[in-house]
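Need a sequence for this fold. Nothing fancy.
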């Protein structure tokens, strides 16, 4: 082990509070940047036991890697073999000898071989460690660290650093935390234990990239671009204000914006009660009642430069209800919007998993189209891979089953075991 690697380890873990825009490898399918992935990125091992870690170089090659432990008294490492020395936690840093790219692995050493899932060992490190979800990723707790937004400025009144905080969910009432937040784990009300990981808000935020992608939206901590660009509406014509500006977030009722326009169309379609009314049926927004899906809404999905400078048209990736079009989704026509994604199993006009059959099924609030246009994947700046291979997070070691799984699946297993503290 060389001394320099400890210095690198220091760099990996030291972040300044003002440095929010940490960049992961950018672009679609590795267009830019050499980076390492590690398997597993999180593991626990009993004292005296070992676990092997593999490193892979993406967008480059490394003939060999150099490994270092942040605390040799807790964990030692030789090659990729990690040995538990004494109870505690240490970080393993790995550096590609040619590329210089680095990644880190979180290892906890337990006294005994484990037989049950554990919040502190399995779950907490995923949300409190830098560089866990991808190299350069910020710990969630840089931004979500307290059930207080007013004074402590923790985003969405959310605390992802403690078991209790996670269980209170997002945006709870600070004066009445129990039962008032949006559940993170799919439970009916926070405090309930009917977890539904597959349909949970947290799983969606960890996996779902904000659209359009490649290039991606700029993540803004003040959320100002979440309703899309400001627009003008006059004489039946919608135009994006150029150069693009985002001022609607604080006054969405008075500043016409792209998401408001799309919402108005969706609500009108629902109120009309007929899914087959077609794309030329008029609806109103911002005081103009001569707008139609085909001339005013569709360009946001078929044209470039509509959402931000150089944004890709959605139809570049989603152009037909066929396999070759991502998620069998057609965003080029009215019929495609009604049909939805994945053979109709993922409607875009609501958030359910069954095909739309009537206009009453429409639900803008939970719709995939709304969420994909507004919600940034967490943590911000995750690399977007067309192959989707990083959507479940890094590999992690499931010490209970004695096998490798993914971060997202380990959270599901923990919930399945009743979310033990
Ligand atoms: C750099 C700051 C930052 C980091 C780091 C960060 N978030 Fe966020 N998070 C935000 C902001 C800002 C929003 C609101 C904007 C948005 O939804 O895109 C948000 C929204 C959310 C929401 C939705 C809350 C709601 O009420 O709808 C969840 C859930 C979430 N983040 C989870 C996470 C998780 C999990 C991580 C780590 C894996 C994480 N965040 C890391 C800033 C951050
Ligand atoms: C560069 C290609 C690309 C572009 C451009 C793009 N998407 Fe996607 N889209 C994907 C991929 C890949 C996925 C699956 C991975 C993911 O969810 O992040 C996806 C997933 C989705 C989903 C979820 C489908 C499901 O089955 O749940 C929706 C909805 C979506 N995109 C809407 C849009 C919209 C709206 C736009 C334009 C504003 C857009 N996409 C632009 C590639 C793209």
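Here you go.
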């Amino acid at each position: 082990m060389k001394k320099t690697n400890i210095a690198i380890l220091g760099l990996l873990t030291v972040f300044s509070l003002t440095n929010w825009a940490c960049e992961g490898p950018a672009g679609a399918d590795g267009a830019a940047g050499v980076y390492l992935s590690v398997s597993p990125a999180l593991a626990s091992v009993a004292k005296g036991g070992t676990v092997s870690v593999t490193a892979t170089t993406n967008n480059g090659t490394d003939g060999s890697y150099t490994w270092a432990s942040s605390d040799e008294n807790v964990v030692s490492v030789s090659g990729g073999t990690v040995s538990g020395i004494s109870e505690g936690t240490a970080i393993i840093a790995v550096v590609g000898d040619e590329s210089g790219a680095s990644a880190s692995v979180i290892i906890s050493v337990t006294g005994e071989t484990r037989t049950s899932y554990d919040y502190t060992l399995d779950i907490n490190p995923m949300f409190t460690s830098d560089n866990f979800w991808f190299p350069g990723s910020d710990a969630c707790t840089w931004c979500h660290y307290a059930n207080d937004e007013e004074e402590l400025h923790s985003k969405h009144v959310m605390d992802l650093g403690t078991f209790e905080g996670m269980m209170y969910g997002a945006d709870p009432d600070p004066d009445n935390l129990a039962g008032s937040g949006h559940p993170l784990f799919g439970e009916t009300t926070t405090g309930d234990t009917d977890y539904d990981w597959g349909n949970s808000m947290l799983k969606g935020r960890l996996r779902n990239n904000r659209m359009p992608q490649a290039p991606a939206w700029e993540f803004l901590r003040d959320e100002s671009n979440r309703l899309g660009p400001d627009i003008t509406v006059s004489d039946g014509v919608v135009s994006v204000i150029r150069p693009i500006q985002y001022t609607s977030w604080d006054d969405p009722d008075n500043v016409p914006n792209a998401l408001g326009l799309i919402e108005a169309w969706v609500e009108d379609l629902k109120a009309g009660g007929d899914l087959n009314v077609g794309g030329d049926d008029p609806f109103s927004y911002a005081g103009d009642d001569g707008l139609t899906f085909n001339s005013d809404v569709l360009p946001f999905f078929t044209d470039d430069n509509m959402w931000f400078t150089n944004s890709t048209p959605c139809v570049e990736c989603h152009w037909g209800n066929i396999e070759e079009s991502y998620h069998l989704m057609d965003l080029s026509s009215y019929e495609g919007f009604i049909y939805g994604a994945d053979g109709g199993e993922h409607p875009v006009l609501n958030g359910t998993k069954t095909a739309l059959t009537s206009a009453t099924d429409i639900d803008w609030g939970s719709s995939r189209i709304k969420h994909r246009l507004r919600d940034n994947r967490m943590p911000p700046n995750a690399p977007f891979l067309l192959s989707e291979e990083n959507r479940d997070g890094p590999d992690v070691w499931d010490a209970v089953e004695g096998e490798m799984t993914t971060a997202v699946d380990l959270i599901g297993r923990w919930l399945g075991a009743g979310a033990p503290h």
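For context: The chain has ten helices and 15 strands.
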